[in-house]
Amino acid sequence: MHPNSYGHAGAKKVPPVAIVAIVALVCVIAGYFAYGAFNPATSCNSDNSTSTDVCTLSTSTPGGLTAAQLSKLKTDLNDYLTTLIAINGAPDGVTAAVANITKDGDMYKASYDIMQSGSVAQSGSGYVTSDGKRLFLGSPMDLTEKLEKPTPKPAATINVTGRPFRGSETGTVTIVEFSDFQCPYCKVAAANVDTVIKNYGANVKYYLMHFPLSFHASAQKTSEAFECAMLQDQNKAWAMSDLLFEKSTSDGAKLAVADLKQYAADLSLDTAKFNKCLDENQTAAKVAADAEYGASLGVTGTPTFYVNGVEAVGGSAMQSAVEAILKG
Prior knowledge:
The protein contains 10 helices and 12 strands. It has helices spanning 16-21, 23-26, 67-87, 184-200, 219-232, 234-247, 257-266, 271-279, 284-297, 315-327, and strands spanning 8-9, 95-104, 107-116, 119-129, 134-136, 140-142, 166-167, 173-179, 204-210, 301-302, 304-307, 310-313.
């Protein structure tokens, strides 16, 4: 993974601290809070005058904010964090809500919840300088900076004519994923796909398209292997997809050509046909066409999903988008 990328990206860069705010939504990074506090504080420290959700410093405390300033800080933090997660691809309706602000030494501790569909998806905390101008979530951010929410991308029309899919022919929600079998974040997203198929299979159609990244040496051939399996048996091809993600590692160690041929044998495919297909690059053009098509849509990293044509980056974002549509 590029150190500043969200998911696996060739060019798409996102501030790394912003990833933290949506970690529970995208399942990409395991955590990044400098102070490691995930439980909102329930009361103020002894040098504060109240135990309400916004604490008021004693007037004698140097550098402290007034009650009115603290209330405004809470509101400003709500807006700042909500905008931050929107910038980084969170679905519509996902917001940040600061639960409380307490004095902690020379700084303020701000505990917040990431809200999704009316429920808490993630709780976290950060630290704000005594003047209320700097927020620390792993690295400092300037609260005086005006963040602008991104303009939503218009829905894209994805051509899936004649492509195999998982789910139901009559499904009203179409999911298209551009994926890379060597990408560890696609492996994580595969679990979200499985959950969606299991829970909403009668209402969705899932299509897999290939977007092997250039710095993944095994990705191209592994995508070809999936397509070689698809030429023989769709059910076994989807089983091959599951197996490839199960075996996948970021270094591609278990996705060598010899491994791919063994997986075909394990799935009782016709190995002579499969090996010939793989050795002769019979599906290479199909994989390349998928990647070219993805690039024409603006795809730069994996996993990138389109849910009824609306982009959702990351498996959790895809699942949230599907649930938002079906639960209306």
